[in-house]
Amino acid sequence: MKIAVYGASGYQGKLVLAELARRDIDMRLVGRNATRLLEAATTVGTAAGAGAAQQRVADTDDHDALVAAFRGCDAVINCAGPFTSSGPAVVRAAIAAGCHYVDTAGEQLYTKAVFDTFTGDAQRAGVTVVPAANDGCAPGDLIAHLLAERVRSIEEISVSHFVTGGGGFSRGSLRSAVETIDAIKAGGLSYDDGGWRSGTPARHTTVTLPDAPRPTDVVKCPLSEVVTIPRHIPVRHVESHVDAAVAAQLDAPLTPGIIDSLPEGPTEADRRTQRFTYLIDAVSRDGQSIRGVVRGHDTYGITAVIAVEAARRLAADGAEPGVLAPAQAFDPTSFLTFLAPHGISWTITVSDTPTT
Ligand SMILES: NC(=O)c1ccc[n+]([C@@H]2O[C@H](COP(=O)([O-])OP(=O)(O)OC[C@H]3O[C@@H](n4cnc5c(N)ncnc54)[C@H](OP(=O)(O)O)[C@@H]3O)[C@@H](O)[C@H]2O)c1
To answer: How many CB atoms lie within 10 A of CB 319?
Structure first.
């Protein structure tokens, strides 16, 4: 099995390379700059004991070069953000090269565009595309599927992300936030009665974390779970939130110069101090509440684990061709169980009273 990593020279890309090396999976490093690719190969070679990895240079505006760079690989992991501008070219080339595709994107409108644009092409090519295979969307989408198996007729699902510690965002995450700032400020898409809409006011402005004495303020935020969950769960309304205190970090003006002056991303020590809690709250039509809780640490490290395992499963086991949500491509219990030794824990609680 051979997996290509596009954007291999970035912060997330190098974590993916290290994870591929740890799992002894053959890799091909692909990106737009030969020098930075070589640096990434050297870093991973030194840090993780990987052998000489193949490298290919291909820019996103050269479709033929991208296809040639991916050809012969079983899957592509795309870590090159911002995805809104560069992602579609990479998906198109992966499909043309006959490779399965996953990415680490956290850009909600891009994730929706991948479903809208590439479903037919992927089906015809017999490959599977799973966007947003990251720390948030993958476990959130998988656990939402398990919630839906426990109750009949879900009216509403609300997804909320809380992160503490950890040294903040990588430069690449900040660049993605800047490129999509209008959608972030507007709260992104909600799913309502069969379609995705922008501008819908949030139904929730506070969420109570498990065992917390009081509710936490949240703001509506464009998470990719809003795009993926309604693809496999019949539900009337889906919206997503983040902790208002975390969202406020994006209120400060961010110029390319400021972002360039920051560290590439959190240090390993910072990543160890980070904790996240992702809540998936569902309410059934008869008023029953059911809550899924996903806990873990190190969002960037676990994203590497998830993206590699998703690509590996697609290459080894296959899935329906097309663009799929995580829960459509992978068995939810099996994938979540795989994540447990990597620090992911999850619970599902059913109650007769609302949890928020
Ligand atoms: N839960 C989540 O939402 C989540 C979790 C993890 C990561 N992510 C996303 O993953 C992405 C990567 O983050 P990062 O920290 O690794 O960023 P980074 O360090 O800035 O790396 C970005 C990579 O993409 C490449 N790249 C950027 N623009 C490109 C373009 N137009 N054409 C070709 N290559 C391009 C860069 O190549 P050069 O080296 O040549 O510049 C580099 O390899 C971000 O979008 C981040 O938001 C999301």
So the answer is: 17
